[in-house]
Predict the structure.
Amino acid sequence: MSTRIAFIGLGHMGGPMAANLVAVGHTVTGFDLVPAALEQATINGITVAESAAAAVADAEVIITMLPSGRHVLGAYQGDETTPGLIASAAPNTLFLECSTIDVDDARTARDLAVAAGHRGLDAPVSGGVGGATAGTLTFMVGAEAADFESAKPVLEVMGARIVHCGGSGGGQAAKICNNMILGVSMIAVSEAFVLGEKLGLTHEALFDVASAASGQCWALTTNCPVPGPVPTSPANRDYQPGFAGALMAKDLGLAVNALESTGVSAELGTLAAAIYRRFAEEDGGSGQDFSGIINTIRANSAVTNYATPHSCQYPALPSSCVSRPASAGTATSGGKTPISRQPSIWGTISSHRLSTSVSPRRKGTSISRAIDQAWNARYTLTCCRYSASGKSP
Ligand code: NAD
């Protein structure tokens, strides 16, 4: 059965979603502020209206797919010069709000629609542009049971999974919680890969272990932040999105709003929001896939090469470097460790592996040789000192 649908917001997501509705025979009238989006919509068989109000005038269902809550509430309510969707729609129209917005904004939008004699629900999506194009999105729906049943046939055209998450705002709540998991887990996976690199693990070895062990998660097995193990992940195409860093920053901002309004103590979620905000706003990650966060983590990781192998024979000892007697030299991660058991040779090594792999065990092994070995082993030497006196520096 063909339904008259108005589609407001024909961008990266809305464009292909509307096209899928046309493809199964629905009558779709669309509006967007950007002319290029309207041109593409026309090619896809959508009837383009002159305004949002004109697009919804004859609609049975109105779908909004807009950037933020501000845009949604603005479109619903209109202003002095532009009539809003609510006032322009026929009575009892079903409003499907599919953007990712604050839970509170979603509830406000629905309340405004209901107060004007309409029906409304929130139905944000996951699955990205690929899912929108393929019609395989997941819809998370916050709705009264009857409204959910009314919306389901339309949503099923655009999505493969339609989940009823509770009453008004429930869909946005599920979306925000899911993306908080995603943001935190992508940071955790990326940190683990960078740590693995520093410890000499190949990406493949870590992937083979973690993808079949307790570290398994979507961020690792589907959107792997290093090129190679998952050929379809954005890391293999220079971090082209995918799911852009700006959108992850936005969604985690929504999560923080929800954390603050509910009083939930979520240290990782809050930190992930700050990390992705910096990634998007300061580190050029706005238009990259959010898995590009690994490059920021790698860039921020200490490169503590105070010396090259040969010039390291007599460097100044940094004030932070305190050696201890060789006899007490049990290797510890990040600790102060003699690099030789010869009492005249002292050093500080950042990786406990270094001491086991390069400590000159035989009397007479030179410190420069030990350092060469360290360098070749690609472990980080924070400082070293040769003491000809044979006394502890
Ligand atoms: P987009 O910027 O590509 O599209 C939004 C469109 O809305 C733009 O074309 C813009 O011109 C239009 N618009 C803004 N105000 C308007 C108004 N008053 N009237 C008509 N049109 C208006 O964004 P997108 O990637 O399509 O994302 C849309 C929503 O979907 C966002 O809330 C986003 O968080 C969410 N989302 C995006 C993805 C993704 O991968 N892109 C995934 C899941 C959810």
